[in-house]
Amino acid sequence: VKNTELADITPLFPDDQPQELTPIDLESPRQTCLACGANLSKSTKYRRLRICPKCGYHYTISARRRIATIADEG
Questions:
Q1: Region Disordered: what ranges (predicted)?
Q2: How many domains are contained in the chain?
């Protein structure tokens, strides 16, 4: 591999550090869907399962919450 070949790929890897992204809290209830913008405030399906009733987008839920949605009490 010649040094001139490596010089051609250097623009692909900028020296700048990536910008800090603001994390989105997916566990807290949302008012609108991140994927389609549907209103989620009155949706039972979203409240119980964290799934958008319009587009079917599945939101992240904790392991404890997932177990609570599929297991019987006791």
A1: 1-20
A2: 1
